[in-house]
Amino acid sequence: MEKIRKTEDEWRAILKPEEFQVLRQAGTERPFTGEYTDTKTEGVYHCRACGAELFRSQAKFESHCGWPSFYEPGESDAVILREDVSLGMRRVEVLCARCESHLGHVFHGEGYATPTDDRYCINSVSLRLEET
């Protein structure tokens, strides 16, 4: 996969302010407000910044956490995982592997009845759904 590199000014020019704040500044949208939180539409979720395929609807599940949740990415190399110790917590940040935009966080071992017991908690504003 070819990496996409842009300056922050270039990203700011192509993203809406709320997209830029989450994707490029590692922000978080308010829970239960995102367009994909409760959607059950079949399709492929792409990075809103660069268009890379990230998640498939078959891996989406209801976690009732306020953000779209997936138990695995579409391909193992679609995302990058990075330690995040911001806000006084130890978490694992999820980034798009192609453009390194912030998507959300992944949590493991919470007891969800999924094949991986992972919860990729992803901001809707970081995604664009292509219906199938």
In CATH, what is the class?
Mainly Beta
The rounded Rg comes to: 14 Å
Largest sheet: 6 strands, antiparallel
Mean pLDDT over the full residue set: 96
Got a strand count? 9
Q: Which residue ranges are poorly predicted, with pLDDT under 50 across at least 5 consecutive positions? A: none
Sheet-strand content, in percent, reads 25-35%
Per CATH, the architecture is Beta Complex
CATH third-tier fold name = Metal Binding Protein, Guanine Nucleotide Exchange Factor, Chain A
Number of helices: 2
The 3D shape can be described as globular
CATH superfamily: Peptide methionine sulfoxide reductase
Content-based structural category:
mainly beta
Instruction: Provide the domain count.
Output: 1
Strand order of the largest sheet: 3-4-8-7-6-5
Give the CA-CA distance, first to last residue.
23 Å
SSE ordering: HHEEEEEEEEE
Give the % helix. 10-25%
